[in-house]
Automatic annotation (TrEMBL):
<feature type="active site">
    <location>
        <position position="679"/>
    </location>
</feature>
<dbReference type="InterPro" id="IPR027417">
    <property type="entry name" value="P-loop_NTPase"/>
</dbReference>
<dbReference type="GO" id="GO:0005524">
    <property type="term" value="F:ATP binding"/>
</dbReference>
<dbReference type="InterPro" id="IPR027065">
    <property type="entry name" value="Lon_Prtase"/>
</dbReference>
<feature type="domain" description="Lon proteolytic">
    <location>
        <begin position="546"/>
        <end position="741"/>
    </location>
</feature>
<dbReference type="GO" id="GO:0004176">
    <property type="term" value="F:ATP-dependent peptidase activity"/>
</dbReference>
<keyword id="KW-0720">Serine protease</keyword>
<dbReference type="GO" id="GO:0004252">
    <property type="term" value="F:serine-type endopeptidase activity"/>
</dbReference>
<dbReference type="Pfam" id="PF05362">
    <property type="entry name" value="Lon_C"/>
</dbReference>
<dbReference type="InterPro" id="IPR041699">
    <property type="entry name" value="AAA_32"/>
</dbReference>
<comment type="similarity">
    <text>Belongs to the peptidase S16 family.</text>
</comment>
<feature type="active site">
    <location>
        <position position="636"/>
    </location>
</feature>
<dbReference type="InterPro" id="IPR008269">
    <property type="entry name" value="Lon_proteolytic"/>
</dbReference>
<dbReference type="GO" id="GO:0006508">
    <property type="term" value="P:proteolysis"/>
</dbReference>
<dbReference type="InterPro" id="IPR014721">
    <property type="entry name" value="Ribsml_uS5_D2-typ_fold_subgr"/>
</dbReference>
<keyword id="KW-0645">Protease</keyword>
<protein>
    <recommendedName>
        <fullName>endopeptidase La</fullName>
        <ecNumber>3.4.21.53</ecNumber>
    </recommendedName>
</protein>
């Protein structure tokens, strides 16, 4: 019979000759385009050039991407530390970026400065060896004593005793050199009392003037001491300042900050000075220790830009947080309770997130988007009831970020975000798509074999024989639906290897063999067994050896997602007088999908093209998928439907031993379909179940021959000539292969037969009129 495929055109081949192991883990052909896109994003390093990676997530893939990024950023500068520091406003800390590993040194340096100032200032207050200060203090005391002494003398002359306080003077009238009591004062005469009051008023006015004079003099002297103190502090802290200038010579901003702190502490301590240390101690402590450093990102252990995968991207984990503590029933916070999130930890490097995890956390995508659009991380997002209860809330200033974000998700989320979120396309300008299907060439074969070897080594599995490797390749080619390609699914590969290894543990085999792989990948599910049983019991009716008019064996696939298998379907057609309509019983019963409906309309166009001598074809056709009670969709049965119509109209029988699958256009050209391997094997199994496989076959589109990757049993039957696969390019091929015609020119015979039958229908129509 014409158009029969030879066994060598069908049997799968995977040659391992010359294949060597090189353990080249960095080469991943299915990820070449992904790596190229990630590399581009890393090189551009500008606003919005983040990556949306369309791929299924797995830890192996994450590790491979991470390794690739590490290799591409290894020559970039080390990531900087990030600190929050206090400037003027303790409630509004600011961010400081430092050279890698310098964050903790800054914190230590600030602490040393504060401790040093604390020692120096105590020494200044208590040390009497500071000559200039002591001279001024002695002079102050001398002047005070002289001025106060003159007031005391005058008071004594006026009959008063004087008590000196820091805030002023108290005058007590005396009698015989001793202060009089209230009782004694009361018995005095009015004249004496008036005289005492007049003298007291004069003394008070003089005392007031003296106090003003003392304050002016002491302020002048204190200002001199404060100036001396500033110079003293500056001199004593000089060596420490020189040290930190050397430590942070590459961080000018840090030197500026520490200079600012030193200047502010020096000014503040000088302004506080009031001679007595005990009086000033509390203010001194506040002035020195108000400044603080919180190292929120410590990159001291990172010699390369950080690559962070955030498994749980909640808002807190993404941005960071300001924590609160309950101290004596009051919620308080401070600089050191600010915690960084993944966006800050990945600053200068790369952050990897899963879309599913991102959208599982309320508001996480919103705040990620907000941060990427502004180029800043803000920690004011979580102001809530704790801040309302707290008397010490913080308002940290935003921190600049510059990193590449890789978002791993599927098509549906990408399409949704791209279509309905204007901001998304601004911040994820690079779309990268993982393509698991790779060509079978020498380098990819080496990668495939090496990958098997590495998986076995990693999981402590037995090695594979060459035939087992070929069978694995065959399975992956079948998944790719191309005999010259492989579907590289490392997760699936690992699963098969582990299951196969588990099955041979009790057999004491040294190798995983071909049959061990077949037992895993070709295992029939219960549903498929039940369907075959129904054919065997004649519950599902099908004829695979006779000839019938208007009846043909089409092919379908039952796809459950995790498993799929093929099964033949009896398609029937009956015709009677009408106006050229094709009545699809599936459609009339609301059991057809949109693609199937389109295929019926296309079929109507083809039939009209085939029989073009009639303005109105005097025949209607009834098409039915027998014993199908679920929804039918797709166009892969349109060749079978066309042959059933031709057979019903021409009264030429169809061979039932050959099933057919294929789509047809309006001009009779046959188009490719999906699931060709499942369909062929489905018909093969049914034939084997209810009859024999001898002299049976399947007709497929020629364009599907490249997709043939059949199981070993089918391949063997084809090699033995028991089971055959035929191909077709157009409906002419289908007619010649499927219809039972002895004539040499089969197509002309069919057309003549159709013409004769159509005339009969036309005459019946006229007779009825």
């Amino acid at each position: 019979m014409r158009n029969k495929l030879k066994s060598e055109e069908v049997v799968y081949k995977f040659d391992l000759t010359g294949i060597k192991l090189d353990n080249n883990k960095n080469y991943m052909p299915e990820y070449e385009q992904v790596y190229e896109n990630i590399k581009t994003a890393l090189q551009i390093n500008k606003f919005g050039y983040n990556v949306y990676l369309i791929d299924d997530f797995s830890m192996d893939k994450l590790n491979n991407i991470t390794d690739f990024i590490k290799e591409n950023v290894k020559n970039k500068e080390k990531p900087k530390d990030i600190c929050y520091v206090i400037y003027e406003d303790e409630k509004s800390p600011e961010a400081l970026f430092l050279k890698n590993g310098k964050g903790n040194l800054l914190k230590k340096t600030l602490h040393n400065i504060q401790e040093e100032y604390s020692k120096i200032v105590i020494n200044f207050y208590l040390n009497s060896s500071i000559k200039e200060k002591e001279e001024i203090l002695e002079n102050m005391q001398k002047k005070r004593n002289e001025i106060v002494g003159s007031l005391i003398e005058e008071a004594e002359e006026s009959g008063f005793q004087i008590k000196v306080y820091k805030s002023g003077f108290k005058f007590l009238p005396t009698k015989d050199g001793k202060p009089i009591t209230e009782k004694e004062y009361e018995i005095l005469g009015e004249y004496e009392k008036e005289e005492i009051l007049n003298k007291l008023n004069i003394l008070k006015k003089k005392a007031q003037n003296i106090l003003i004079m003392l304050e002016e003099n002491e302020n002048k002297d204190l200002n001199k001491i404060k100036k001396i103190m500033k110079e003293y502090l500056s001199k004593k802290i000089y060596s420490l300042k020189e040290n930190y200038k050397e430590d942070f010579k590459e961080d000018k901003n840090v030197i500026e900050y520490l200079n600012f702190v030193c200047n502010k502490i020096g000014e503040s301590l000088a302004n506080i000075y009031s001679i007595n240390y005990d009086d000033d101690e509390e203010l001194i402590s506040k002035s020195i220790y108000k400044y603080d450093v919180n190292v929120i990102v410590d990159n001291s252990k990172n010699s390369k830009p950080p690559i962070i995968f955030e498994e749980d991207p909640s808002v807190n984990n993404l941005l960071g947080s300001i924590e609160y503590e309950n101290r004596n029933g009051i919620y308080v916070t401070d600089l050191n309770l600010i915690k960084s999130g993944a966006l800050l930890k990945a600053n200068g490097g790369c952050l990897i997130l899963r879309v599913n995890s991102l959208f599982s956390n309320a508001n996480a995508y919103y705040y990620l988007k907000k941060s990427l659009l502004s180029g800043k991380v803000r920690l004011d997002y979580n102001r809530g009831y704790l801040e309302l209860l707290s008397l010490s809330g913080l308002n940290p200033k935003p921190i600049d970020i510059n990193e590449t974000v890789i978002l791993v998700g599927d098509y549906s989320v990408y399409d949704l975000l791209y279509s309905y979120d204007e901001d998304f396309k601004k911040i994820f300008k690079i779309k990268s798509e993982y393509n698991p299907i790779i060509d079978i060439n020498k380098s990819n074969k080496e990668f495939f074999v090496d990958n098997i070897y590495m998986n076995c080594k990693k999981n402590n599995l037995k090695p594979l024989t060459d035939d087992a490797i070929k069978e694995l390749a065959k399975y992956l080619s079948r998944k790719a639906e191309y005999k010259n390609k492989l579907y590289m699914d490392n997760y699936e590969l690992n699963k098969i290897l582990i299951l196969a290894n588990s099955n041979i543990e009790e057999k004491n085999q040294d190798y995983i063999e071909k049959t061990d792989i077949i037992n895993i990948v070709c295992k029939e599910e219960i549903l498929e067994k039940e369907v075959l049983e129904k054919y065997k019991e004649n519950t599902l009716l099908i004829d695979v050896k006779d000839k019938s008019i208007g009846q043909i064996n089409g092919l379908s696939v039952i796809d459950m997602g995790y498993y799929r298998f093929g099964r033949p379907i009896k398609i029937t057609c009956s015709c009677y007088n009408g106006t050229g309509n094709i009545i699809d019983i599936q459609k009339e019963s609301n059991l057809s999908g949109n693609i199937h409906n389109k295929a019926i309309n296309t079929l109507r166009g083809y039939i009209n093209t085939l029989v073009n001598n009639y303005e109105v074809l005097p025949v209607d056709f009834h098409l039915n998928f027998e014993q199908i009670y679920g929804k039918v969709d797709g166009d892969s049965a349109s060749v079978a439907e066309a042959i059933a119509i031709i057979s019903a109209l021409s009264k030429i029988p169809i061979k039932q031993n050959i099933a057919v699958t294929g789509s047809v256009n309006q001009f009779g050209k046959v188009q490719p379909i999906g699931g060709v391997n499942d369909k062929i094997e489905g018909f093969f199994k049914v034939c084997k179940t209810i009859d024999t496989i001898e002299n049976k076959g399947v007709l497929i589109p020629k364009s599907n021959t490249k997709n043939l990757v059949l199981n070993e049993e089918v391949e063997k039957s084809i090699q033995e000539g028991k089971f055959n696969i035929y191909y077709m390019e157009n409906m002419k091929d289908a007619v010649e292969i499927l219809l039972d015609i002895e004539e040499r020119n089969k197509v002309d015979f069919v057309l003549d037969s159709i013409e004769k039958e159509v005339k009969k229908y036309s005459s019946k129509k006229r007779y009825r009129r």
